[in-house]
Amino acid sequence: MSKKYIGMMVSLLAMVFIFGCNHRRKGEKSAIYEALEEYPDSIVVGGITFQYGFKNQMLAHRDGVFDTALIVEKFYKPNQYLFDSCFNFFSTPIYSPKEIVRWNSTYLDEYDTIVWKQTRFLLEQNIDSLLKKHLNAVQEMTGIKGEAKFLAYFPPEGYGVSGGCDPYSMAFDLMYKIEDADYLKKVIPHEIEHTIYENQIGNDPYFATGIGVTLDEGLATYFERTYNKADSTIFFDTKAETDWLLKNEREIFERFEPYLMKPLDSACPLLYHFNRTSDCQPLFTEVPTKLLETNMGYFLGYRIIEQYTKVHGTDSWRDIYHISPKEFYEKSGYKDFIQAPE
């Protein structure tokens, strides 16, 4: 057999392989588009609307010609408040109507592999049913319908937002955690609960203090862990970190306490331990990991709520939606508990 013949056969086989891969990939993309077509643009549960922004971001490219009108009418306009008010902290107008159309027009070309991979994962996780389950659970467990609008979307590189800027709006950057079931299972219920609490208590004068942020994050963590029936022996990532937190709990509290009743603009060191700022020195630096150091406050808030339930009953944590953060903290008896002689 001649080398020329062998070369021709190799080339032919390569062409068949490439054609087969491309054909299969086109089939997979068509299946994804068809699945997305079955999704609604949004769902409403109680007082909460969840916009599936990623759906129309993808479908705008379906026919190989970018559909500008679809992005404007189905992506920008339903989320205009979020883009105009919550996303306006960026130095460039990346979420203005013009810019939204611009970066969406090239998005699939620039992030082709990763976006398709993530969309496939979201569909495999049945994100529509999962989000409905989360929303129903939050409202049933808290007894409050809430009032907020959420957006699940693909952002431009470097401009993603995951979280809320006010009690009524929140975004989930679907590129933040790629193929991460824990993100869908833990983080989204955690963030949804924030809007419930902030809607209820946001106008209380103690909400904007150290104890307000401590209970806000502690409650979202308490809810998320209760909802997911989390292992009570592991609070953070590992049992070793949990053991460290418990061992140092009294000292953590005593360093945090002077800031608990201070306004947030005077509580920068405390905010550092909620990963809300890096502009000041931490209160507690002898910590095993940086991640633990900047998220330590969640543990303290969680423990205050846990202590409240020990004093007032298993389901009493729901009282937090109806009384001042200061009153909840005082009724928890946490200070006496943690400072009691061993």
Automatic annotation (TrEMBL):
A Pfam short name: DUF2268
InterPro entries registered for this protein in UniProt: DUF2268
Top-level taxon in the UniProt lineage: Bacteria
DUF2268 domain mapped to chain residues: 175-328
Name of the protein described by the UniProt record: DUF2268 domain-containing protein
Species, as recorded: Flagellimonas lutaonensis
UniProt lineage: Bacteria, Pseudomonadati, Bacteroidota, Flavobacteriia, Flavobacteriales
